[in-house]
Protein backbone atom coordinates (compact mmCIF):
# COMPACT_ATOMS: atom_id res chain seq x y z
CA UNK A 1 0.00 0.00 0.00
CA UNK A 2 1.56 3.27 -1.14
CA UNK A 3 0.86 6.34 0.95
CA UNK A 4 1.24 10.05 0.31
CA UNK A 5 1.89 12.50 3.14
CA UNK A 6 1.34 16.25 3.06
CA UNK A 7 1.53 18.82 5.87
CA UNK A 8 0.42 22.44 6.19
CA UNK A 9 -0.06 25.20 8.73
CA UNK A 10 -3.26 26.96 9.75
CA UNK A 11 -4.06 29.79 12.15
CA UNK A 12 -7.19 30.22 14.24
CA UNK A 13 -7.77 33.47 16.16
CA UNK A 14 -8.42 33.12 19.88
CA UNK A 15 -11.45 34.96 21.19
CA UNK A 16 -10.12 37.72 23.43
CA UNK A 17 -6.69 36.20 24.07
CA UNK A 18 -5.55 33.36 26.33
CA UNK A 19 -3.23 34.06 29.27
CA UNK A 20 -1.27 31.66 31.46
CA UNK A 21 1.69 32.25 33.77
CA UNK A 22 4.10 32.13 30.80
CA UNK A 23 2.35 34.74 28.64
CA UNK A 24 -0.60 35.55 26.39
CA UNK A 25 -1.64 34.05 23.05
CA UNK A 26 -3.99 35.67 20.55
CA UNK A 27 -4.05 32.86 17.98
CA UNK A 28 -3.69 29.11 17.74
CA UNK A 29 -1.09 28.18 15.13
CA UNK A 30 -1.47 24.51 14.18
CA UNK A 31 0.05 21.98 11.81
CA UNK A 32 -2.11 19.49 9.93
CA UNK A 33 -0.96 16.21 8.44
CA UNK A 34 -2.86 14.46 5.62
CA UNK A 35 -2.01 10.88 4.66
CA UNK A 36 -3.73 9.32 1.64
CA UNK A 37 -3.85 5.72 0.48
CA UNK A 38 -6.21 3.64 -1.67
CA UNK A 39 -8.41 6.66 -2.32
CA UNK A 40 -8.87 7.43 1.38
CA UNK A 41 -7.42 10.29 3.44
CA UNK A 42 -6.63 10.49 7.15
CA UNK A 43 -6.08 13.75 9.02
CA UNK A 44 -4.30 14.80 12.17
CA UNK A 45 -3.68 18.16 13.83
CA UNK A 46 -1.03 19.22 16.31
CA UNK A 47 -0.14 22.38 18.19
CA UNK A 48 3.60 23.19 18.44
CA UNK A 49 4.47 24.34 21.95
CA UNK A 50 7.40 26.65 22.63
CA UNK A 51 7.67 25.33 26.21
CA UNK A 52 9.00 22.12 24.67
CA UNK A 53 11.19 23.84 22.08
CA UNK A 54 8.69 23.45 19.25
CA UNK A 55 7.69 25.87 16.49
CA UNK A 56 5.73 25.61 13.27
CA UNK A 57 9.01 25.28 11.40
CA UNK A 58 10.50 22.62 13.63
CA UNK A 59 7.33 20.52 13.53
CA UNK A 60 7.09 20.74 9.74
CA UNK A 61 10.76 19.71 9.54
CA UNK A 62 10.16 16.69 11.79
CA UNK A 63 7.23 15.57 9.66
CA UNK A 64 9.27 16.07 6.49
CA UNK A 65 12.08 13.95 7.93
CA UNK A 66 9.63 11.11 8.58
CA UNK A 67 7.85 11.35 5.23
CA UNK A 68 9.82 8.60 3.50
CA UNK A 69 9.16 6.16 6.33
CA UNK A 70 5.45 6.99 6.46
CA UNK A 71 5.00 6.78 2.70
CA UNK A 72 6.77 3.42 2.58
CA UNK A 73 4.34 1.98 5.12
CA UNK A 74 5.80 2.50 8.62
CA UNK A 75 3.34 1.50 11.33
CA UNK A 76 2.32 3.61 14.28
CA UNK A 77 4.52 1.47 16.51
CA UNK A 78 7.48 1.94 14.18
CA UNK A 79 6.92 5.70 14.23
CA UNK A 80 7.37 5.66 18.00
CA UNK A 81 10.94 4.61 17.31
CA UNK A 82 11.50 6.88 14.30
CA UNK A 83 10.03 10.11 15.67
CA UNK A 84 10.44 11.71 19.09
CA UNK A 85 7.42 12.29 21.30
CA UNK A 86 5.86 15.65 20.55
CA UNK A 87 3.52 17.56 18.31
CA UNK A 88 4.89 16.32 14.97
CA UNK A 89 4.47 12.65 15.84
CA UNK A 90 1.00 13.38 17.18
CA UNK A 91 -0.18 14.78 13.85
CA UNK A 92 1.22 11.80 11.93
CA UNK A 93 0.00 9.22 14.42
CA UNK A 94 -3.55 10.60 14.48
CA UNK A 95 -3.63 10.83 10.69
CA UNK A 96 -2.73 7.14 10.51
CA UNK A 97 -5.50 6.22 12.97
CA UNK A 98 -7.99 8.21 10.89
CA UNK A 99 -6.74 6.64 7.67
CA UNK A 100 -7.16 3.14 9.11
CA UNK A 101 -10.72 3.96 10.15
CA UNK A 102 -11.54 5.30 6.69
CA UNK A 103 -9.98 2.30 4.90
CA UNK A 104 -11.47 -0.43 7.11
CA UNK A 105 -14.82 1.16 7.97
CA UNK A 106 -14.15 0.48 11.66
CA UNK A 107 -14.35 3.64 13.81
CA UNK A 108 -11.35 4.44 15.99
CA UNK A 109 -13.71 4.41 18.97
CA UNK A 110 -14.38 0.71 18.35
CA UNK A 111 -10.67 -0.01 18.00
CA UNK A 112 -9.66 1.49 21.34
CA UNK A 113 -12.65 1.29 23.72
CA UNK A 114 -14.96 -1.52 24.68
CA UNK A 115 -18.07 0.63 25.01
CA UNK A 116 -19.53 3.15 22.53
CA UNK A 117 -18.27 6.70 23.20
CA UNK A 118 -20.44 9.01 25.26
CA UNK A 119 -20.64 12.78 25.72
CA UNK A 120 -18.22 14.03 28.36
CA UNK A 121 -18.25 16.90 30.82
CA UNK A 122 -15.35 19.14 29.85
CA UNK A 123 -13.73 21.94 31.79
CA UNK A 124 -13.91 25.50 30.50
CA UNK A 125 -10.74 27.56 30.98
CA UNK A 126 -10.53 30.89 32.78
CA UNK A 127 -7.41 32.86 31.79
CA UNK A 128 -4.97 34.30 34.28
CA UNK A 129 -5.57 37.95 35.17
CA UNK A 130 -6.20 40.27 38.05
CA UNK A 131 -8.55 38.74 40.65
CA UNK A 132 -11.50 40.98 39.83
CA UNK A 133 -11.14 40.28 36.10
CA UNK A 134 -10.96 36.54 36.70
CA UNK A 135 -13.98 36.72 39.00
CA UNK A 136 -16.01 38.52 36.35
CA UNK A 137 -15.02 35.98 33.68
CA UNK A 138 -15.80 33.12 36.05
CA UNK A 139 -19.21 34.56 36.90
CA UNK A 140 -20.13 34.48 33.20
CA UNK A 141 -19.51 30.72 33.22
CA UNK A 142 -20.66 29.88 36.74
CA UNK A 143 -23.37 27.58 35.36
CA UNK A 144 -20.73 25.22 33.97
CA UNK A 145 -20.14 22.01 35.90
CA UNK A 146 -16.33 22.14 35.64
CA UNK A 147 -13.97 25.10 35.34
CA UNK A 148 -10.21 25.17 34.85
CA UNK A 149 -8.63 28.30 36.28
CA UNK A 150 -5.18 29.51 35.29
CA UNK A 151 -3.04 30.74 38.18
CA UNK A 152 0.71 30.68 38.82
CA UNK A 153 1.76 33.88 40.59
CA UNK A 154 3.65 34.29 43.88
CA UNK A 155 0.37 34.88 45.72
CA UNK A 156 -2.73 33.35 44.15
CA UNK A 157 -4.88 33.23 47.28
CA UNK A 158 -6.97 36.25 46.23
CA UNK A 159 -7.54 34.76 42.78
CA UNK A 160 -8.52 31.37 44.19
CA UNK A 161 -11.03 32.88 46.60
CA UNK A 162 -12.39 35.27 43.97
CA UNK A 163 -13.16 32.54 41.43
CA UNK A 164 -14.65 30.26 44.06
CA UNK A 165 -16.97 33.06 45.22
CA UNK A 166 -17.95 33.70 41.59
CA UNK A 167 -18.76 30.04 40.90
CA UNK A 168 -19.85 28.46 44.19
CA UNK A 169 -21.37 25.34 42.59
CA UNK A 170 -18.74 24.48 39.96
CA UNK A 171 -15.98 21.96 40.39
CA UNK A 172 -12.69 23.80 39.87
CA UNK A 173 -9.31 22.66 38.59
CA UNK A 174 -6.43 25.06 39.20
CA UNK A 175 -3.57 25.09 36.70
CA UNK A 176 -0.43 26.85 37.96
CA UNK A 177 1.65 26.06 34.83
CA UNK A 178 4.79 25.55 36.97
CA UNK A 179 4.32 29.00 38.53
CA UNK A 180 4.48 28.21 42.26
CA UNK A 181 7.56 27.54 44.37
CA UNK A 182 8.45 25.14 47.15
CA UNK A 183 8.21 28.04 49.59
CA UNK A 184 4.60 28.91 48.66
CA UNK A 185 3.38 25.36 48.03
CA UNK A 186 1.93 24.47 51.45
CA UNK A 187 0.27 27.88 51.74
CA UNK A 188 -1.41 27.59 48.35
CA UNK A 189 -2.47 24.00 49.01
CA UNK A 190 -4.17 25.11 52.22
CA UNK A 191 -6.01 27.91 50.40
CA UNK A 192 -7.12 25.41 47.75
CA UNK A 193 -8.45 23.04 50.40
CA UNK A 194 -10.33 25.91 52.03
CA UNK A 195 -11.87 26.82 48.65
CA UNK A 196 -12.90 23.26 47.82
CA UNK A 197 -10.67 22.98 44.74
CA UNK A 198 -10.92 19.55 43.08
CA UNK A 199 -7.45 19.29 41.52
CA UNK A 200 -4.22 21.31 41.21
CA UNK A 201 -2.29 20.94 37.99
CA UNK A 202 1.53 21.22 37.82
CA UNK A 203 2.17 23.66 40.68
CA UNK A 204 5.98 23.38 40.54
CA UNK A 205 8.42 23.38 37.62
CA UNK A 206 9.06 20.02 35.96
CA UNK A 207 12.32 18.60 37.26
CA UNK A 208 12.07 20.73 40.41
CA UNK A 209 8.98 19.21 41.95
CA UNK A 210 10.55 17.16 44.78
CA UNK A 211 8.73 19.23 47.41
CA UNK A 212 5.49 17.55 46.38
CA UNK A 213 6.79 14.30 47.87
CA UNK A 214 7.30 15.93 51.27
CA UNK A 215 4.17 18.05 51.71
CA UNK A 216 0.70 16.94 52.74
CA UNK A 217 -1.27 17.06 49.50
CA UNK A 218 -4.58 18.14 51.00
CA UNK A 219 -5.86 18.59 47.43
CA UNK A 220 -4.93 16.07 44.70
CA UNK A 221 -2.06 17.22 42.49
CA UNK A 222 -1.83 16.45 38.77
CA UNK A 223 1.34 16.23 36.66
CA UNK A 224 1.32 18.01 33.31
CA UNK A 225 4.72 19.29 32.21
CA UNK A 226 6.32 16.57 34.36
CA UNK A 227 4.86 13.72 32.30
CA UNK A 228 5.17 12.98 28.60
CA UNK A 229 5.70 9.24 28.14
CA UNK A 230 4.57 6.02 29.78
CA UNK A 231 8.10 5.49 31.05
CA UNK A 232 7.83 8.71 33.10
CA UNK A 233 5.07 7.51 35.39
CA UNK A 234 6.83 5.20 37.86
CA UNK A 235 9.07 8.05 39.07
CA UNK A 236 6.10 10.35 39.73
CA UNK A 237 3.91 8.30 42.06
CA UNK A 238 5.45 9.75 45.24
CA UNK A 239 4.54 13.32 44.30
CA UNK A 240 1.46 13.25 42.07
CA UNK A 241 -2.04 11.84 42.39
CA UNK A 242 -3.04 12.26 38.74
CA UNK A 243 -1.57 12.87 35.31
CA UNK A 244 -2.68 15.08 32.43
CA UNK A 245 -2.41 13.20 29.13
CA UNK A 246 -2.13 15.49 26.12
CA UNK A 247 -1.70 14.04 22.66
CA UNK A 248 0.80 16.74 21.68
CA UNK A 249 3.03 15.83 24.63
CA UNK A 250 2.71 12.07 24.27
CA UNK A 251 3.25 12.20 20.53
CA UNK A 252 -0.05 10.72 19.49
CA UNK A 253 -2.96 8.51 20.43
CA UNK A 254 -0.84 5.34 20.33
CA UNK A 255 1.43 6.43 23.18
CA UNK A 256 -1.47 8.10 25.01
CA UNK A 257 -3.37 4.81 25.20
CA UNK A 258 -0.38 3.18 26.88
CA UNK A 259 -0.15 6.14 29.27
CA UNK A 260 -3.80 5.72 30.18
CA UNK A 261 -3.37 2.01 30.88
CA UNK A 262 -0.21 2.47 32.95
CA UNK A 263 -1.81 5.25 34.99
CA UNK A 264 -4.66 2.90 35.86
CA UNK A 265 -2.16 0.22 36.89
CA UNK A 266 -0.38 2.69 39.18
CA UNK A 267 -3.66 4.01 40.66
CA UNK A 268 -3.12 7.49 39.25
CA UNK A 269 -6.18 9.47 38.24
CA UNK A 270 -6.32 10.61 34.62
CA UNK A 271 -7.08 13.96 33.09
CA UNK A 272 -7.18 14.23 29.32
CA UNK A 273 -6.21 17.75 28.29
CA UNK A 274 -5.30 19.75 25.25
CA UNK A 275 -3.43 22.67 23.80
CA UNK A 276 -5.51 25.45 22.22
CA UNK A 277 -6.41 24.00 18.83
CA UNK A 278 -9.36 23.20 16.61
CA UNK A 279 -11.87 20.37 16.80
CA UNK A 280 -9.59 18.22 14.65
CA UNK A 281 -7.01 18.20 17.45
CA UNK A 282 -9.66 17.46 20.11
CA UNK A 283 -11.45 14.64 18.30
CA UNK A 284 -9.05 11.77 19.12
CA UNK A 285 -8.69 13.11 22.66
CA UNK A 286 -12.47 12.84 23.19
CA UNK A 287 -12.20 9.12 22.45
CA UNK A 288 -9.14 8.77 24.70
CA UNK A 289 -10.99 10.59 27.50
CA UNK A 290 -13.81 8.04 27.77
CA UNK A 291 -13.77 7.02 31.43
CA UNK A 292 -11.24 9.70 32.47
CA UNK A 293 -11.53 11.34 35.88
CA UNK A 294 -11.20 14.85 34.46
CA UNK A 295 -11.67 16.12 30.91
CA UNK A 296 -10.26 19.43 29.65
CA UNK A 297 -11.04 19.57 25.94
CA UNK A 298 -12.39 23.08 25.50
CA UNK A 299 -9.84 24.25 22.90
CA UNK A 300 -12.42 25.04 20.19
CA UNK A 301 -14.55 27.00 22.67
CA UNK A 302 -11.65 29.42 23.14
CA UNK A 303 -11.39 30.16 19.41
CA UNK A 304 -13.11 32.95 17.52
CA UNK A 305 -13.83 30.35 14.81
CA UNK A 306 -13.44 26.58 14.56
CA UNK A 307 -13.09 24.38 11.50
CA UNK A 308 -16.15 22.84 9.83
CA UNK A 309 -17.37 20.32 10.64
CA UNK A 310 -16.37 20.68 14.29
CA UNK A 311 -17.12 18.93 17.53
CA UNK A 312 -20.52 19.45 19.07
CA UNK A 313 -20.53 21.26 22.42
CA UNK A 314 -23.71 21.72 24.48
CA UNK A 315 -23.28 23.57 27.78
CA UNK A 316 -20.50 21.61 29.57
CA UNK A 317 -20.75 18.54 27.35
CA UNK A 318 -18.53 17.65 24.41
CA UNK A 319 -19.85 14.95 22.10
CA UNK A 320 -17.85 12.25 20.29
CA UNK A 321 -16.61 13.26 16.82
CA UNK A 322 -18.59 12.55 13.70
CA UNK A 323 -16.53 10.46 11.24
CA UNK A 324 -16.68 13.37 8.78
CA UNK A 325 -14.36 15.22 11.19
CA UNK A 326 -12.11 12.37 12.38
CA UNK A 327 -12.07 8.72 13.27
From TrEMBL:
UniProt remark on cofactor binding: Binds 1 Mg(2+) ion per subunit.
EC number, as in UniProt: 5.1.1.-
Keyword list, A-Z: Isomerase, Magnesium, Metal-binding
Keyword Isomerase: yes
Cofactor(s) listed in the protein's UniProt record: Mg(2+)
Domain Mandelate racemase/muconate lactonizing enzyme C-terminal: 131-222
Enzyme class: isomerase
CDD domains documented for this protein: L-Ala-DL-Glu_epimerase
UniProt keyword annotation of Metal-binding present: yes
Pfam families from the UniProt entry: MR_MLE_C (PF13378), MR_MLE_N (PF02746)
UniProt superkingdom: Bacteria
Family in the record: Belongs to the mandelate racemase/muconate lactonizing enzyme family.
PANTHER family assigned: D-GALACTONATE DEHYDRATASE-RELATED, ENOLASE SUPERFAMILY MEMBER DDB_G0284701
Stated name of the protein: Dipeptide epimerase
Organism: Mycoplana ramosa
Gene: dgcA
Amino acid sequence: MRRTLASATETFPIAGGFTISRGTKTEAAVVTCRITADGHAGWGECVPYARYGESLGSVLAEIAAATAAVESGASREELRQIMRAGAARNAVDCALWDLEAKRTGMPVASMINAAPPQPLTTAYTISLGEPEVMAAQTARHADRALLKVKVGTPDDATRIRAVRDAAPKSRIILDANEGWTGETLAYHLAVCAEAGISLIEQPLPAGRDEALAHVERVVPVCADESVHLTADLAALTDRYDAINIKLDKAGGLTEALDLRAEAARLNLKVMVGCMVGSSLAMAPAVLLAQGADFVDLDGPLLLARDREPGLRYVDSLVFPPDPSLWG
